Structures are given as C-alpha cells and as structure tokens.
C-alpha cells in the first residue's frame, strides 16, 4: 500500500486555479510504483449547467495523451515481430506514398513536391516525418483555408491528405504522425485500433473507462469542453469530437478518467508491468524514455498559428523526444528529474512519468485555448511544484 502524501498544498493549487478562472474545473492524481498517493479535484463538470463536482472518476477527453497509448500498441507489435520500425510507412499504408511536401504558395495555389525520402514507421513514432498540425504551423492554416481540407479533429478521413512541411528525417515537427501510426497498427493487426488497444493495453491493465466512444452512462459523467465568453467567464462549448468518425484517432481519440489513465502511467513507471500484467518489456520502455531523435531537438518554442486553439508552446531548451514522450534532458529544480517522459492533450490535460523519483502524475481539465501561459500552463507547473514539495515533506 502506497503512503498517501499530505495533499493540502496540491488541493489549494487546484481550488485557487478554479476560483481565479484559470480553468473551468480540474482533477489531478499522482501515484508511485505501488499505488495512488494523491487525488483531488475542484469545480464542476459543466459550468452553469451541472453541479456535479469533478473528481478523478470523471471522464475527460485526453486528446494527444492518446498518442502514447497508440505508440505502446505499435511497440507491442514491434516486440512480436509484426511491425518493422525501419519499414517505409507506405508498405503498410500504400496511400501514404501520395503525401507531398508543402513548399509554399503561388498566390492561393499550394506548391507541392515529392518527399525527399520515404518516411518510416520510426519517424511516425518520433514526429520526424515532416507532418504537422495546423495550430502550430501557419502554412498548414493557409493550406486548409485555400483547399478546404479539414484538420484531423472533425474525424474526416480527408484529413490524411494533409501535406508534410519538411522532408522526412530533417526536422522534428509535431503533427498527425500518430494518426498515421494508428492506421499502420491497424494494417499490421488486421483489426481496428479500438480493438487493438482494448486487447493489448486497456483490457490487461483494467482500464475499463478508457475508450474511443463513451456509452450513455459515461457520457453523463463526462465534462464538456469549455471556452471563455466575452465577459471572461467559462461556458460550455459542448461536445467537439465527432462521435462517428471515419477512423479511430491514434493521435487524439481517447476518453479516460484520471484513475484509469494513472494505471497506464504506473505500468510505464514499473517498466511495462502492472499487477502481474506485462504490456511492454523493460527494454522497450527504456527505449521509449531515451532520445530517439538524435541531433534534432524538440523546439524550445513553437509559436501559435491559431490563438483560439492554442497559445505558443514554451518548453525552453534542452528537450528531446523518445517514443511517444517529451523528455527533459536536465532536472527541473523542485520538479521532475531528467529524462522524465511526458505529454499533454489539446483540451488541457497533461501527464508525466518520473522514473528517477519514482512518481507519475496527471492533471485534467477540458478547455480551450491550450496551454494559456498564465492559466492552464501555469497550473501545470504549480501542480507539479506543490506535488514534489509534498513528496519531500
């Protein structure tokens, strides 16, 4: 049984963030290798509509936190010899051969050319194919505007016609790589991604509340996405994800609860095993937490190209990418140790796994814009600082 920490300082951080209007609601959880050591929440599920308090059993859209789950499914296939990391993506998904590189525009006409090399499965895992997201790339914003091509969030398969913005292997570009990886996983398995993930990850780990589409009871326990009105107060924007998408999105499609997702985090913390169920080997987990992008760097800053969706990302220098994980190469004073693996979701969810300290944690709200510097982004840091102070107490 894990010792429960004095979480009063963490409770205060969550409560004050909601009271100040930084977030509409928030739930947070932390665990060590043996179990949960903290859980708490503040605010209500739907501001102005529901008085249900948010807790670690509330359903959230975890968006890009889905990426590590999909990556783990792909790594399972690699372990079994069903998927080849160095194989070109178009071996598994022939339509990938049609993806071009966007060089710029001639008036309103995109200038496209063939890629300089065939992107590989490994490059999908490491975001080095050149595929991007519109919200952090002005050229993709313009491309979508002049072509009418949707981004991936509405769930239309047309989104897979989006171009690269760099040649494979030349840059780290965060983007729709894991959506393509999910299609690769499906091709290798001969099954849809929801089945692959349930059979290989959420089922064995007892994550019964983690899924791509919620049933009626779980929908009634789910927050909605919130945005701020003209008066600065939070209001519900409702359900923003297509409940009948053309594909199960390996890059952003899962719903989960903090109590469910912490089981996946603990499995990573424990080297791929939880409660006697092994989902990955220790060697594979170690590789996921190592630099897999070589001399390339995760950008210190990624300017926003769509302020309604996200703020500028400001992680600072010294970050790399493993398999599905952002890695800090230096200790962050008072917070996570070097080579912690972490990532986040577009509606302001965030997780990290600090294998050196022996702790994992995650924090959840569903709101836009993403990572607002003095609101959600600040809350991430305040939560982590309070948690580590409690661990040292």
TrEMBL record:
Pfam families: Beta-lactamase (PF00144). It comes from the Bacteria. Residues 10-375 form the Beta-lactamase-related domain. This is CubicO group peptidase (Beta-lactamase class C family). The lineage of its organism: Bacteria, Bacillati, Actinomycetota, Actinomycetes, Pseudonocardiales.
